[in-house]
């Protein structure tokens, strides 16, 4: 690759814990290039959680916006967009980069369009079968794809989705999923201990819920099923890290407050959380990232959602979709607890989310865009290379 005469500035915008986790390997890889200056902006969406997660990951934060007030979703987007635009005007980056489907990612894409700055989207092309479900994530990611100049797709189905929507194939890079970089790195270290003492004779169920669609009736039904499950299996303990959203955490805490063998915790640091997942007999969740991690840990997962964008994981049997409005969680969980534990998926090119080198691929192609001034310098033929990229 040609070297840039002037170092290129990449403004990396993140606003929630999963964005920090999923951009860690990209930040590190960009930092390896002497002609690139990565600048990290905490958007203020979940300000404290981002501060804490970046510190754990040993990633510096260059700009901190105030915690957003966020009276409504619309007000949050407006506030985040203005803050990101303000930071970008000061930094004058060559490219703005964000990840996933959060309010921050959408606001960053809008701010880049306001200012005419190229936008690079990590985890591009995930789609469910419904244009705005889950809400607001599906809506955000579809809008972001209309703005982005470079799309880093985690999976082959995401690549196909983008091509199917008429996105220029030259701007789509099949990079793999950056959470796999972090997970692989974590599993190669000395294992951390789970966050809470758990007796050897106990089986663990990790329970996390935070999606908007599950607030209210969904959480109530799921918690009732957890009670019945605990009554049916006296060796079972449930660990439930509470999400940052105030109403959701309050409801979970209320529904599970007097439950025996349920441990409610604050959000758990990544190494300890992975240790907890490994120690689990079953995961019950509505999380996106945990669906990507569980197959590599060999832990069965019940996904409490109406649909999913992780089609590869469900096809593999790594995640089982359960619609709480129609199916009984207690029965499905008991069935899964009785089944043999799945074999962990190895980190190879053949795994749906890649081999754990996505961050390096993203940095390479981003720098190529910045040096050549266009992404058309690297057209990939997906049929010729298993990951569709040359590095
Ligand atoms: C619709 C949808 O699926 N959207 C997703 C959504 O994120 P999510 O649903 O995956 O969010 P969470 O479940 O909060 O985070 C998960 C990560 O956090 C770790 N974890 C969890 C609990 C804990 O106590 N400690 C931890 O360390 C865990 O291992 C995992 O890696 O937004 C992301 C950003 O844009 C998107 O990428 C992503 O598509």
Automatic annotation (TrEMBL):
<dbReference type="Pfam" id="PF02350">
    <property type="entry name" value="Epimerase_2"/>
</dbReference>
<dbReference type="GO" id="GO:0008761">
    <property type="term" value="F:UDP-N-acetylglucosamine 2-epimerase activity"/>
</dbReference>
<protein>
    <recommendedName>
        <fullName>UDP-N-acetylglucosamine 2-epimerase (non-hydrolyzing)</fullName>
        <ecNumber>5.1.3.14</ecNumber>
    </recommendedName>
</protein>
<comment type="similarity">
    <text>Belongs to the UDP-N-acetylglucosamine 2-epimerase family.</text>
</comment>
<feature type="domain" description="UDP-N-acetylglucosamine 2-epimerase">
    <location>
        <begin position="32"/>
        <end position="366"/>
    </location>
</feature>
<keyword id="KW-0413">Isomerase</keyword>
<dbReference type="InterPro" id="IPR003331">
    <property type="entry name" value="UDP_GlcNAc_Epimerase_2_dom"/>
</dbReference>
<dbReference type="InterPro" id="IPR029767">
    <property type="entry name" value="WecB-like"/>
</dbReference>
């Amino acid at each position: 690759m040609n070297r840039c005469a002037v170092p290129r500035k990449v403004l990396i915008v993140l606003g929630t814990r999963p964005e920090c986790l999923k951009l860690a390997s990209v930040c590190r890889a960009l930092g390896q290039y002497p002609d690139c200056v990565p600048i990290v902006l905490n958007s203020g969406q979940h300000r404290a959680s981002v501060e804490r997660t970046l510190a754990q990951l040993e990633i510096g934060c260059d700009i901190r916006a105030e915690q957003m007030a966020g009276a409504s979703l619309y007000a949050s987007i407006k506030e985040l967009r203005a803050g990101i635009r303000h930071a970008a005007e000061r930094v004058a980056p060559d490219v703005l980069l964000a990840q996933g489907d959060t309010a921050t990612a959408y606001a960053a894409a809008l701010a880049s369009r306001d200012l005419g700055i190229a936008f690079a989207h990590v985890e591009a092309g995930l789609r469910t079968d419904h244009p705005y479900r889950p809400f607001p994530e599906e809506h955000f990611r579809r809008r972001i794809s209309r703005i982005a100049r470079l799309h880093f797709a985690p999976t082959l189905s995401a690549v196909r989705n983008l091509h199917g929507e008429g996105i220029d194939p030259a701007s789509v890079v099949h990079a793999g999923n950056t959470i796999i970089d972090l997970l692989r790195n974590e599993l190669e270290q000395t294992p951390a201990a789970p966050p809470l003492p758990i007796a050897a004779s106990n089986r663990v169920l990790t329970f996390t819920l935070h999606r908007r669609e599950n607030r209210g009736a969904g959480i109530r039904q799921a918690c009732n099923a957890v009670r019945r499950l605990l009554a049916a299996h006296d060796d079972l303990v449930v660990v439930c890290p509470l999400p940052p959203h105030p109403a959701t955490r309050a409801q979970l805490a209320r529904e599970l407050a007097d439950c025996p063998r349920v441990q409610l915790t604050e959000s758990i640091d990544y190494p300890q959380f992975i240790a907890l997942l490994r120690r689990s007999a079953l995961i019950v969740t509505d999380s996106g990232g945990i669906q990507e991690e569980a197959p590599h840990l060999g832990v069965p997962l019940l996904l409490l959602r109406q649909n999913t964008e992780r089609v590869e994981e469900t096809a593999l049997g790594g995640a089982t979709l359960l619609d709480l409005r129609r199916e009984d969680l207690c029965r499905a969980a008991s069935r899964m607890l009785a089944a043999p534990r799945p074999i962990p998926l190895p980190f190879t090119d053949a795994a749906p989310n890649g081999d754990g080198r996505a961050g390096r691929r993203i940095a390479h192609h981003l720098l190529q865009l910045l040096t050549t001034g266009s992404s058309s310098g690297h057209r990939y033929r997906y049929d010729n290379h298993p990951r569709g990229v040359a590095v």
